[in-house]
Amino acid sequence: MFQNAQITTEIPDIDQLNFLKIHKNYLWILLFNSAIVWIVIFIAYYFLIDHKYAEIYPKFSNYDYIILAIIVIIYNVILIAGFSRRKYALREKDISYSSGILIEKLTTVPFARVQHLEVDQKPISRLFKLASIQIFTAGESNDDLKINGIPKKEALKIKEYITNFINE
Amino acid sequence: MNNSFNFSSFSRQSSKGIIVNYSLIFYKSLKSSWVLIPLFFTKKPENFSATKILLSIALILIYILVRSILLYLNYKFKVKDNNFVLKHGILKKTNVSIPFSKIQNVKFKQNFIQQLINVTEVEIETAGAKTVEVSIKALTKERAEALKEVLFSDKKTENVEEILIAKPPTELLQISPFELFKVSISENHFHSFLLLFAFIFSGYVQLKDLLGDLVINNKLDVLVEEKANSLIHDVFLVSILLLFTFIISIIISFVRTFLKHYNLNLSLKDKALEISQGLITKQHNIIKKEKVQYLVVSTNPLKKIIGIYNVVFKQASSGKVKNNKIVKIVGAKMNQLSILKNILFGKEIDENQEIFVPNKYYLTQMYFRSFLLLVIFNLFTLISINFLFINLIGIPLVILLINLKYKKSYFKLHTNILEIGSGQFSTEIIYFELFKIQHIKMRQTVFQKRKNVTDIILQTASGKIKIPCINKMLAIELFNIMLYKTEISNKSWM
């Protein structure tokens, strides 16, 4: 498509990545986290809106709990459906992560631009021996690459590979 | 190189630094405590005797003096093994060491007091994971120049020949007051207009809070309430206010442009661009070619007629993009622009490259989003029917802006440069070296997926660049090329 297309035949194609799915146990962690959040919201709603401030905030309708439940179901359906979209791919000189069902995202970081890496484990992830790897580049570092829910061994291997690449 | 200054052992800045420190601390404490000043007047006067007030002021002034002397005494720097070493701090001692290679920019500054006592402030900027900013408040002009040369010396040793032929700086651009006048009159006044309007509005709200109990205010409210019913009166009042704000915003544009860009001078010296500008605070920037992440050239219809362009140099920054990492010059002419592009990118920009425009879906997307916004705005009509008038101006304006935005967005792929056009009333063109991406992202909503288009977001060390709604095939190809160029390049991106 571009005029200098002669090089395009030999360059690696992002469309043919060998994606690896993240560990399926991570779904349980996601669901567990979501359960905690929604339970807190339900309790807060029950005690604050429904009981304590019932006079100030009139109940919206008799179906408010049903509406809330529908929101929870939609949220979790998106979570579960989106889970299979979370995948990553490692190539010789870059790492890619793809996710999202309503908004599909694919991010690729060339190793040559990596500033530093972090592998960390949250308490619940530790039970499943899962870890997350976060890759920082220069500039606004708020949405660099972060892959959650990969086996700790795998995460450390990736970390070592990239660290070696940078130090070469 | 100037050898009359020796930086190998620790040395202090010029003793005039005490004066600079003094004024800075004085200004800072005044700035942070001005809120308290009205308190002195509201309290009952018998609690304060003249001697007490004078005594406390004297004590504060002495404290500031002692502090500025101590600051001066404890601020030492030297150059060792291609590192700039700085020791500072009165109680909390800090030791900073910056390798020359990490130095991104050396800036000279002079505020009003520094100009009076004839000293220069030197700022050393770095980019990286942690921000280290060094600012030496007072050096003589000669010493500052010598320090700058030492700090940049490791770059020169790489090719010795260039030091021997110490080329005098080549003048690239010089803006006279008359040209600056043209620049400020063609400025986009809308921006300062909005700022001013927000300022007046918030000022009014605060004033109202402050004078809440005053009788005059009540009277005013009654007056306003009475008149509020007549719509003609409202329109008249608003249009006078708008005209007034507009005139002031033009004046502000003038003052801002002259303060910031007075005596603008751009020259090329030893492969680095030197820019100096400013009326009261003189700014002196040195931009190394490789540190420029990308270049933004902007103009607007009025400027286009006169044939002048603004240029912004975006450099690497850590954390949030700070204003001082963005160096802007104004009033560049077409031929000066192409010289500048040649210096930064070589002769790579080929005007005849194929132009790629966004997919038609981009228009649909923008219309859809503004439609949602418009619906929300129209909810206000439930409060007052007067809000319907917003639609009268709003809808044509939005349609115009959307179409302008669509027409002005395009991109061109040169051999090593990506050229991205955008803008609404103004026109902005970004020139970006392919290998300088930090990471690259493809983003596709479900609606975009149906049309097989996608957004591309390039993360640079100086913020994001978005290429909206291009065909998926094209996006993948661009994605591949950019990654490929980045991965085979061994040039330093900063």
TrEMBL record, chain A:
The keyword rRNA-binding does not apply. Keywords: Membrane, Transmembrane, Transmembrane helix. This is YdbS-like PH domain-containing protein. Coiled coil: none annotated. Pfam families: bPH_2. It comes from Lutibacter maritimus. The chain crosses the membrane at residues 26-48, 63-83. The lineage of its organism: Bacteria, Pseudomonadati, Bacteroidota, Flavobacteriia, Flavobacteriales. The keyword Methyltransferase does not apply. Residues 86-162 form the YdbS-like PH domain. It comes from the Bacteria.
UniProtKB/TrEMBL annotation, chain B:
Residues 72-149, 263-331, 411-480 form the YdbS-like PH domain. The chain crosses the membrane at residues 20-41, 53-73, 190-207, 235-259, 389-406. It comes from Lutibacter maritimus. Keywords: Membrane, Transmembrane, Transmembrane helix. InterPro entries: UCP026631, YdbS-like_PH. This is Putative membrane protein. The keyword Lipid metabolism does not apply. PANTHER family: UPF0699 TRANSMEMBRANE PROTEIN YDBS (PTHR34473), UPF0699 TRANSMEMBRANE PROTEIN YDBT (PTHR34473:SF2).
